[in-house]
Amino acid sequence: MYSPRNRSAQSTDTTPATREGPDGFSFDAFLSYSHHDSAPARGVQRGLASIGRRFGQLRALRVFRDSTDLTASPDLWEKVAAAMDASRHMVVLLSPKAASSRWVDKELSYWLDRKGPERLFLVIADGTLEWDESEGCFDPARSSAAPELLTHPGVLPAQPFYVDISGDAPWDPRAPGFRERVTDLAAPMQGKEKSELAGEDLRQQRRERRLRRAAVAVLAVLTLLAVVAGVAALLQAAEAQAQRDEARRQRDQAVGQALVSESQVVVDDNPALALALAAEAQGATSTGPSRAVEAVWEARRAAMTKAAHQIGRPLTGHVDRVMSVAFSPDGGLLASAGDDGAVRLWDPNTGDPIGEPLAGHVGVVESVAFSPDGKLLATAGEDETVRLWDPDRGVSIGEPLTGHNADVVSVAFSPDGTTLATGGIDSVRLWDPGTGEFIGQPLTDYDYRVKPLAFSQNGSLLASAGPDWAMRLWDPETGDPMGEPLTGEYLSALSAALNPSGDLLAIGTYEGPVQLWDSATGEPVGEPLTGHDDMVSSLDFSPDGSLLASASEDGTIRLWDVGTGDPIGEPLSGRGVRVTSVSFSPDGDLLASAGYDGTVRLWHISTSDPIGEALRVQDEAVTSVAIAPDGKMLASAGGREGMVQLWSTDTGDPISQVLTGREYYRALSVAFSPDGTLLAAAGEDGAVRLWSTDTSDLIGELLTGREFYQALSVAFSPDGNLLASAGDDGAVRLWSVSTSEPVGQPLTGHDDRVESVAFSPDGNLLASGGSDAIVQLWDVGTGEPVGEPLIGHLDRVTSVAFSPDGNLLASAGTDGTVRLWDVGTGEPVGEPLIGHHDWVRSVAFSPDGNLVVSAGHDGTVRLWRADTGEAIGEPLTGHDYWATSVAFSPDGMMLGSGNMVAVDPPYDFDGSVRLWPTSWLTSDACALTEPYVSSLDLEPFLPSDWTPMCDYRK
Questions:
Q1: Which of these, 72, 127, 797, 876, could form a disulfide with 769 (CB 3.0-4.6 Å)?
Q2: Could you report the per-residue pLDDT of 880-892, keeping only the tens digit for each?
Q3: Domains, the chain, ranges and CATH?
């Protein structure tokens, strides 16, 4: 029988009954097994899929196995029952573990009740199985592998068919003995005699070997005939190779189409796996099927638009709900514990288990915590004990700590590691973890579980909740309470966390809200954080204290901005499964969660939401942003007196003094030189200024155009020798960076002011966009226009940008559109990109040329596919008003945007800069998926001779 307590739930088919075969069944077989028998179950599934598989066919038999075909959700049993209804046969993997599993028993009972024993197949993975003819059932005394149901007389009318694979470890379908026994299963399922199927399978295996041998034979024959046949023989060889290549191409094309379909099934639940499948499909032919390209983008969009990314499959191993998770201080280990009594250690980078489960508790393990130095792991359980472990060696340290008279449900180390606090149904106790001795008297005499326990960072406060649902603060040195209990409208405390500085206490409640409290005054801070629909089971602050994660039995995890109290992005969904625990990694990049489905999930807190707080430019507009070539610095312009601010993209902090120009005149455009040593700014006073990014000093002479005319845009040539500027006098000017002198005559041709300029990647062309609604290309060497103006915008052209290969030019305008142009022909490419609801002020390409980004007066930043013009995901929102400028970091992993807000128009503005992560759209597919997708994840989808594109982990 099946239960989420008993298996993993990696999705590849969330609606198993939707793909019916010609006989009305979606699956050829349903595989029922115990989690402990995952290895032989996987081998049986692979064997049934491969034996008798025809050339180019993805699977010979489609077998439903829950770790590859099901998503964890509250209606899990309904999905399993639907899968059994949609299966022609049932295969039950028998072992002592399966015999004791009530879930295997439940699945078996369901099948027999509805379909009878005629299509039931038994496979012995371990243990013994003896049929008692006199009783008409398996002998319970001699059948250690038989589920209880099969030991009842009359359940089966006769001895059922079964095969014994207990001696075939590691259950590799390529091993002859194991393959023969799986053929015993596969033959009746395929409606064939074993000899017939074995013969077909052998012929299929031999076919590829024959092809290789045939190639050798053909070459040998051709060599012998070369003297006689000459050119004719070579042509025959070429034809033979062409035929083989065509056969391989057709096979790869068929596999690619199947992979695309599988990718589209799993994309919502597992974008990383979907991207891996789509990338493999795209690589199946030299050009990649168009459907595969679309699937790759669909997977990238799914990852980008999630509020945070759950990467790869859930960490499975627990056979019941997981109650607690915790990261080690160095982030190298993740510990989990649950109802199955096991404590498990994981590598959070790969998701792989480390060593064997730590066994010792009897019954549920409620809580885990690492000591600050990472050398100890403390666990608490319903067996009324606390245990200490060496996490490196996986062994217990000393005797269990006993003293509680009821379940122990919470553990927490003090920041210096000298005190261990434990909370139970009876009391809160303090221990010396070095000696295992009590410290002082119990802090409470509760008769209700004390779930929340939290130390402040300096160790001077300990927070706990009591039977009256109130939070109490304690002095751990004296054991005395500090102040009155915290009580309020929303204070039925179920969970708690202190921020790193200890001045804020977050309390999760039975009703769902989360309340922040000032730990010094005992007063609530701000309004309750509302959003959960059920009790809040766990809370954790990020290491820098800026984020708060809350987990709830409503099946969601929410992230909150501690400074504002606002939710960040959409809730992280655990597929509706109740979430019991959350924990941030020490670097704050990962969040681990545990749930009722028996899994641990890892989430990347790299989202399509802005990174951190807006970089606030107080009382000033932001008219332009640029990111330095090394990606470490961002410049923003727009302040009065020509203010330009430099920021760290890593921390969001200002890293240089404000650069000032001429009083009362704003800087309207900024650009870094290709080597990052210079920063140029164009200003309202018509001047272009150069600064050193190392010293922030103004260098050289002011580069002036016509006095009293604004300089609106500035750009460096790719070699850094030239600087182009544009202004409202309708001219484009070129300057020597080394001498600050003009180069040639101004480029004239626009009938109104020129709002944007950009060099082509090879430096030979310059593009300009103006208020006369045209885009013009110029020959940098001669200063002459190239071709006719590019006409299409209905109003001012505000921004232009070349693609990295120089073949495309993007332009944005006040008509609300972005347009793409073929640089070679001057013709528009596709339809205008429409999505903004107001002016589009800025446009840029990603470094790989695959994306176009635009910023508009509707306050949004939008991403588009450069090849199709299709919008990618939802607009990026976070600016309060006009989004005025956008720029990609050189590695494409980050996007910067600036905005301006009219406070007292037309003179006073406010502005901000935001950073956005874009790695899931711009990074190489292998780089994204290799850490999170294993070769085992892909194995059910790929032919045995397939060479994966990426180096997936084992």
A1: 797
A2: 567 777 878 777 6
A3: 16-198 (3.40.50.10140), 230-309+931-940 (no CATH), 312-603 (2.130.10.10), 616-927 (2.130.10.10)
